Amino acid sequence: MEGESTASQVRPKLFFVLTCIWCFCVVLSTKTEKVPPTKGHPVILVPGDGGTQLWASIDKPATVHYFCREKESWFTLWLNVEDLLPGSIDCFVDNARLVYDNKTRTTSSPTGVNITVVAFGNTSSVEYLDPSKIWLGKYFNAIVDGLVAVGYKRGVSVRGAPYDFRKAPNEAQIFFRNLTRLIEDTYRINGNRKVVLMTHSLGCLYTLYFLNRQSNPWKAKYIQAFAPISGPWAGATKSLRVAISGDNVGDFAVHASVVRTAQRSWPSLNFLLVTDKYWGPHEVIVSTQKKNYTVNDYREVFNDMNYEVGWEVYKDVRGLVYDLKAPGVPVYGIHGRDVPTEEFYVYNEERPFPDYEPYITYGQGDGTVNMRSLKAYMKWQHEQPHPVSEFEISGGEHVHILQNATLIKYLINTVLHLP
Ligand SMILES: *[C@@H]1O[C@H](CO)[C@@H](O)[C@H](O)[C@H]1NC(C)=O
Ligand SMILES: *[C@@H]1O[C@H](CO)[C@@H](O)[C@H](O)[C@H]1NC(C)=O
Ligand SMILES: *[C@@H]1O[C@H](CO)[C@@H](O)[C@H](O)[C@H]1NC(C)=O
Ligand SMILES: *[C@@H]1O[C@H](CO)[C@@H](O)[C@H](O)[C@H]1NC(C)=O
Ligand SMILES: *[C@@H]1O[C@H](CO)[C@@H](O)[C@H](O)[C@H]1NC(C)=O
Ligand SMILES: *[C@@H]1O[C@H](CO)[C@@H](O)[C@H](O)[C@H]1NC(C)=O
Fold it and tell me: At the top level of CATH, which class does the domain 39-52+119-237+320-415 belong to?
């Protein structure tokens, strides 16, 4: 997900965080006194790539610059906008990168860095990404506000399931155990009412992976519906560009190749490479002076960009949801359309592979995910007895769609069957 807008000079402090939590409580108590609890099904929100706060605690033997902090306990690693500015971005990259172990085939933080999600089960870490500036990285807040307005309660009938979005589902066993417990607990504290899973982007794939591993009786008992929003079911071509050249995370004044070190090391990026089920063997995605690369040339791309680890990681993650097996629960798919979406890249002598940003050709999609990928889940209409529907929002951009009033109305009226 992109960070957005400009930076300010305020550092996130525990003080601000406490203020936010306090605001939420005030909103909660005033709203809930007036509005009686609804009869609606409880909701669990599963965020997408970059869609949750990550907190870090560091005690490092060495740093990349004298001004990078060596030791600090529990600060917001993601998202703190100042940390993405030139200079401090190097400290961020060195904390946020993952190190791949080709024996265990897992990733971990560099020595002296601990990273974790916070407030599992609450909505706070998925409503706003930068806790010091809640007006900035707005995320699930509009949906939560919409639910609270019809009687939902934060932390009780609308809950968040944050996870470390840098990793792919094969490294998220603890998260999936937590998610199982969260669903069962939410069902119970809401009078044995089944749960609706509302997910965004990467969270749709995580949730599909999860549902594919639950038994049918368990799903029949606990899951009312799955409402995936902006699902990159067959990946996004953008992922390959980010792996090759990096992405400057919105409009910040940093060179993409600086952030690339961290981005490349995150297995979720490889997990989001487009698949050969939806991209043909003759369809060139990346063109350089030396070669044309298709979906079948990932090994060569990683070799040619001198990042062989990328291929190892890709082998671990490519099969996790490759078949897009039907989830076996009612599905209300939602996605945008008619937003120019990158699909083909050219590197040449002015913009050499892999260190420069390529020329980009655009096609149909939601601005991040290509159309055919957004629609790939529709095949479930023929693969499961439960209903599978599609709600398209013209102009609904990948992330901003979460703020769209039409979307929120649809979630409340159609997905939750509330007036
Ligand atoms: C990271 O977590 C481990 C286990 O909880 C702890 O022993 C270690 O001191 C922590 N390191 C840092 C840098 O916080
Ligand atoms: C695993 O990594 C080590 C150290 O980087 C390297 O020497 C070795 O060749 C790698 N093995 C495989 C199978 O990739
Ligand atoms: C979640 O929110 C509730 C109510 O706002 C609060 O009592 C609880 O401590 C929070 N839990 C976490 C883990 O933040
Ligand atoms: C799992 O749940 C525990 C307890 O709520 C929480 O402390 C922990 O951060 C969660 N871990 C993951 C990976 O979800
Ligand atoms: C890549 O494909 C284009 C169009 O099909 C072709 O003109 C070009 O020669 C190819 N480049 C290489 C290096 O094969
Ligand atoms: C939300 O989507 C609807 C339907 O496409 C569109 O008419 C409306 O302008 C959108 N609203 C915003 C704020 O983007």
Answer: alpha beta
